[in-house]
Amino acid sequence: MPARRSSRRLPFDRPSQVEWVTLGLWAACMGLWAGALVWGTGPVAWAVLVFALVLHASLSHEVLHGHPFPSRAASEALVVVNPGLFIPYLRFRDTHLAHHQDANLTDPYDDPETNYIDPAVWRRMPWVMRAVLRVNNTLAGRMLVGPLVAQVGFMAADWRAIRAGDGQVLRGWVLHVPGVVAVLGVVSLSAMPLWAYLTACYAALSVLKIRTFLEHQAHERARGRTVIIEDRGLLAFLFLNNNFHVVHHMHPRVPWYRLPALYRAHRDRYLKSNEGYRYGSYAEVFARHFLRAKDPVPHPLWSSDR
Q1: Within 10 Å of residue 167's Cβ, how many Cβ atoms?
Q2: What residues form the membrane-spanning segments (predicted)?
Q3: Residue 297 domain flag
Q4: Is 302 a domain residue?
Q5: Which among 261, 202, 254 is positioned nearest to 62, based on CA atoms?
Q6: Which residues contact 95 (CB under 8 A, 6 or more apart)?
Q7: Which residue among 9, 153, 162, 180 is least packed, with the fewest CB closer than 10 Å?
Q8: What range defines the domain where residue 29 resides?
Q9: What pLDDT does residue 5 have?
């Protein structure tokens, strides 16, 4: 059954004016990005760059859900050039909004963000590919090879769509190219070597894989598929409180800085809604799943009759 949504309209469902907290954070993020390029050399500058790139990705997620301006065009102007290089914003927007069809969460075909595979497809895979995907199903593997696995799969799917005549997918990639050229041009003029910048982009994706690693699980009920991680540390900030993920899915228009208070005010209701799919912190996630898979790669509840 589809995830239940609150029937009570929240007072901050849609921004009626500029959300200055988010806009200020975007300005700080871009300042850190520029500062890392000026500083350029050494591990501290590299770490600051990774921090800024992760934060920018999280801000891009805020933008596609309607923040910080009432105008979508004004909001998207902040993030349409992706300093993280690998993912076109327009493709991220379209696939992520498709992912928000909660009835399809974890569907191997209709959820574009799932890592589950149709068991029939899994059985036909070469053993090498299955081995890679098993490694990718541990947190350590997701951080190490996950960005590459996801990028290859993402680009292959988009290439198939482009060849089939999907103009919207093609447009997303074509409009991404000038931004990539601009970012690489700025990097070439900076003190940071290109190799260091590219490794920082990969590392940022690795950090983001911590967030997405167990956001969703296979469950008979759609409402039981989305996690709560009760963390308020550095990772929660970098992910803009998306660790309160069921709250975000139930109220996707709520800005990131409202999610913790909303969760605290209705904690029991959210945990009942998601069937108790909860972790106490990201430290618990690392302890339980760094070297152990959360679940199998083939969807454990998938039926060939679907």
Answers
A1: 10
A2: 45-64, 139-157, 177-205
A3: no
A4: no
A5: 254
A6: 112, 113
A7: 9
A8: 20-289
A9: 34
Write the secondary structure of 11-65 as one string of H (helix), E (strand) and C (coil). CCCCCCCCCHHHHHHHHHHHHHHHHHHHHCCCHHHHHHHHHHHHHHHHHHHHHHC
The predicted pLDDT at position 144 comes to 98
Return the structure tokens found at 88. Answer: 């076109």
- C-alpha distances (whole Å) from 201 to each of 63, 78, 189, 246, 256 are 20, 19, 18, 28, 23
* pLDDT tens by residue, 57-101: 999 999 999 999 999 999 999 999 999 999 999 999 999 999 999
pLDDT at residue 13 in the model: 46
Residue 5 within any structural domain of the chain:
no
Q: Which residues of the chain have pLDDT under 70?
A: 1-16, 304-306
Task: Return the structure tokens found at 306.
Answer: 């679907």
Q: Is residue 121, in this structure, part of any structural domain at all? A: yes
> How many residues are recorded in the chain?
306
> Is residue 146 a contact partner of residue 155, using CB atoms and an 8 Å limit?
no
226 CB burial (10 A radius; 0-12, 13-18, 19+): buried
